[in-house]
């Protein structure tokens, strides 16, 4: 749980910085897509290697497909939240800084909602340690 949380902190920092900076050039929607794509790659590898101690080749159906499916769910949900927040902020604020902060907060909040569910899916299904089969002594 601690390692998963620390990986999430790294991912959030990367995502939030990229999202904030990207809004200088693109809409909240495009900026969020870029931020999620940039932060998802280190998140996968840090979770796999450090949080769950997996080595070797990734298993397509047990690791890659579930992780990236959940990443896509996070991308969709956070992009909707960022886009909605940008629209809301533009209608209620004239400050570009405030708009960016509202967008970042909405994206962060949407990932917070998904974080707990993803932990259980990753921990119980994808990266759970399976006990080694034991051979009976003298058999």
If you had to describe this structure to a student in words, what would you say it looks like?
The chain is mainly α. The chain has one domain (2-126). It is built from four helices and no strands. It is elongated.
Question: Gist?
Answer:
With 139 residues, the chain is mainly alpha-helical. 78% of the residues lie in helices and 0% in strands.
Helix content: over 70%
**What order do the SSEs take from the amino end to the carboxyl end, as H and E?**
HHHH
* Main sheet: strands, sense, barrel: none
Supply the number of structural domains: 1
Query: In total, how many beta strands?
Result: 0
- Beta-strand percent range: under 5%
Radius of gyration: 18 Å
What is the SS-derived class?
A: mainly alpha
Shape: elongated
Number of helices: 4
Mean pLDDT: 86
The end-to-end distance, rounded to whole angstroms, is 38 Å
* Uncertain stretches: none
List the helices and strands and how they pair.
Layout lengths: L1 H21 L5 H24 L8 H33 L3 H31 L13
Helix pairs in contact: 1-2, 1-4, 2-3, 3-4
